Amino acid sequence: MIDFSWPWMALLLPMPIFCYWLLPSKSTTSSYVFLPYLPDHLTQYRPSNYLTVFLLVGAWLLLIGALCRPIWYGNPIESNPEHRDMLLTLDLSGSMAITDMWSKNKKQISRLQAVKNVLVPFIEQRQGDRLGLVIFANHAYLQTPLTFDVQTVKQQLLRTELGLIGRSTAMGEGLGVAIKTLLKAETPQKIVILLSDGANTSGIISPEEAMMLAKEKNIVIYTIGIGSISSSALAMYGQHASSKLDERLLKTIAHTTKGQYFYASNPKELFLAYDTIQKLHPTQYATRYWRPQKNLFHYPLSGALLFAFLLSIHWKRHYG
Prior knowledge:
Layout: E1 2-4, H1 15-22, H2 40-43, H3 50-67, E2 70-73, E3 77-79, E4 85-91, E5 101-102, E6 108-109, H4 111-124, E7 130-136, E8 140-147, H5 150-158, H6 171-183, E9 190-196, H7 207-216, E10 219-226, H8 231-236, H9 247-256, E11 261-264, H10 267-278, E12 288-290, E13 293-295, H11 298-319
Parallel strand pairs: 4-7, 4-9, 9-10, 10-11
Antiparallel strand pairs: 1-2, 2-13, 3-12, 5-6, 7-8
Helix pairs in contact: 3-11, 4-5, 4-10, 6-7
């Protein structure tokens, strides 16, 4: 179907009639209107043949038609957008610097570097989902708000460094920031992926409080634990023994929120954890309808210009 965006422009249609009435009459000199900027034959001209009337009327009608901005609308198309909101919540405590992981080329790397190596391809495969990044150490921060731009999330992840926000583990605060961000989202499928290699040692919110809020708001939390090392090894990196991986807490958080817990002692297991999450099927949360549209105003505008061109030739022959 064809519709008009500015139909009120049709009110200009009778304007030439008013202008015609204002032209001076040949028989009345007292009502003569002088227009100094126009040639005399234009101010006194009245159409005297059918061709002139046809060109004038046709050009004006086509111009008004163009001003009304006609638009062609196609048949409605139904779309079912599928996406979920997912916040990656990353531990940046001091123990993430421990080099007990191995890269593909058998090079020893830190836990944080191993996480980055696995998270980058995971993020790149999240086309269609909204991702965000929360980081926590002494406190938690929303590094990247929810966005469909996965490249931005990847870049922000690669820029993360240890020591910038402390060396402790505010796990509960990290979950709190993630949950607060997801509460503003409208999608029914909200997911938090929590990755940590320690236990909660700081922050103003406990993991249990954040867990119960997530359960109340139907937010699913997947937890991933990295390593479980001795107190002596922690001391080498300036960490207290309480930073040892708290698997019981991570399992409780995942179970309570209907998520799943994964343990990764090497990059391969870490990859398998994210691969399992990758296979989750997103939920169709809405059905949208849209109609293809195409602007048609250039067609009547072209016709009006053509009529004006023919009219100028006609006038040139009679008055040139």
